[in-house]
Design a protein that fits this description.
Structural class: alpha/beta
Largest sheet: 7 strands, mixed
Number of helices: 13
CATH architecture of the largest domain: Alpha-Beta Complex
Radius of gyration: 26 Å
CATH superfamily of the largest domain: Spore Coat Polysaccharide Biosynthesis Protein SpsA, Chain A
Distance between the termini: 50 Å
């Protein structure tokens, strides 16, 4: 067999494998609309919850739900870059369906029909909203299965509620909507209702094209936990979502290939004593020193980045046998350069910080980490908030959560 024949045979085998994968997947595609503009929360789809941009969270949820092809429809370069890095295929949305008055639903037929979009053979569409940060992958997978296997034409996410709903009638008077105001049975004596969350909708592609909306034919409910139901439309909801992420998503294990830290407020308790000669002394933790030693033995790189130009920073770094770059005003650029030199993707790096000058570095790594007493903005940007404070074992805690058990 000639080299040319072998090459052609290999290409044919790859094509057949890709075609078989598409057939096995049943033509399922996830579509995520993500415009660049937003009035309520500027740059909303790129804002972070649990240290991860909202659009990336939606892509991850789709992949966790077993959907191989995820398409993000956007008009924004940065959203496109983040989505592609997360594993999505990007479809550029034209201006006529990108404005404030454009419906999210309008992105679906465009993404289905674009040559770079979902492709020709799509049986099932999962429509995900990036503004819902907590999309349960298991519930999404079950919804896809119901439509793919023909048990439903349309499935949507909702949570159970026993709430008494009211509306306003004439003259602003309250009107009972889902109950008799004169008879209020106990919770256990009532049937629940289900409140649509907006997180995801799964439907047959052919039925959607015919009906031109999400609800048609046999429509079923995909029940999800109530805490996942938050939808972000304003800054207050964003803060609530970040608090929920800290409560429900804090992993014990932090799987990274490198650790980068600030110095003051991380290795120290952020205080200093100054003697009569102007020499500063800081307080550090011996626990941290042992942790760094364990990290070094495991062969995991570490770097200290500090804005301070102070002999104490260099002295502590030398004691720990950790490289240090201090006097750094632009921590983001310094971190990018170090990661490139080390050949480590930013997604595989944990950055541990405590104050606002750490925010640019925290925003570019896969694992932004905050000490327990960090500035509120740093805590909001963090994927993980440690239990310990700076100078009191925070570095050791992070290292123990990085090292395999």
């Amino acid at each position: 067999m000639t080299r040319t024949t072998r090459t052609r045979t290999t290409r044919a085998m790859k094509i057949r494998t890709q075609e078989q994968k598409t057939t096995d997947a049943g033509g399922v595609v996830a579509i995520i609309p993500a415009r660049g503009g937003s009035k309520g929360v500027p740059r909303k789809n790129l804002r972070r919850v649990g240290g991860v941009p909202l659009v990336e969270r939606a892509v991850r949820s789709a992949l966790a739900g077993g959907i191989d092809l995820v398409v993000v429809s956007t008009d924004d370069d940065e959203i496109a870059m983040v989505s592609a890095a997360a594993g999505a295929r990007v479809v550029r949305r034209p201006a006529d369906i990108s404005g404030d008055t454009a419906s999210s639903e309008s992105a679906t037929p465009h993404a289905l029909d674009e040559p770079d979009g979902a492709g020709e053979r799509v049986d099932v569409v999962a429509f995900l909203q990036a503004t819902s940060p907590f999309i349960p992958g298991d519930a999404l997978a079950r919804a896809v299965g119901e439509v793919r296997d023909g048990r439903a034409d349309s499935v949507f996410a909702a949570h159970e509620t026993y709430g008494f709903l009211w509306g306003r009638g004439e003259n602003g008077e309250a009107v009972a909507l889902n109950h008799d105001a004169a008879h209020r049975p106990r919770r256990q004596d009532r049937e629940p209702h289900f409140l649509e969350t907006g997180a995801f909708y799964v439907f047959a592609a052919a039925g959607f094209r015919e009906a031109k909306h999400r609800f048609f034919g046999r429509t079923r409910i995909a029940e999800v936990p109530e805490w996942t139901a938050i939808e972000i439309d304003d800054e207050q909801q964003l803060r609530i979502a970040r608090a929920l992420a800290a409560l429900h998503e804090t992993p014990e294990r932090i799987p990274v290939r490198a650790i980068v830290t600030d110095f003051d407020g991380v290795h120290t308790d952020d205080t200093a004593s100054v003697d009569a000669d102007g020499v500063e002394r800081v307080r550090v933790s011996r626990e941290d020193g042992m942790g760094v030693s364990l990290l070094r033995r495991a062969g995991i790189p570490m770097l200290i980045l500090s804005t301070e130009v102070n002999p104490v920073v260099r002295a502590r770094a030398d004691k720990l046998r950790v490289p240090v770059r201090h006097g750094i005003d632009d921590k983001e650029s310094a971190l990018r350069a170090w990661a490139e030199d080390a050949g480590i993707p930013l997604a595989d790096i944990a950055y541990l910080g405590n104050d606002v000058n750490d925010l640019p570095a925290l925003r570019i790594v896969g694992w932004p980490i905050a000490v327990a007493n960090a500035h509120p903005l740093v805590r909001e940007a963090a994927r993980v908030v440690l239990r310990r404070t700076g100078g009191h074992g925070a570095v050791r805690e992070l290292i123990e959560r990085v090292l395999p058990g």
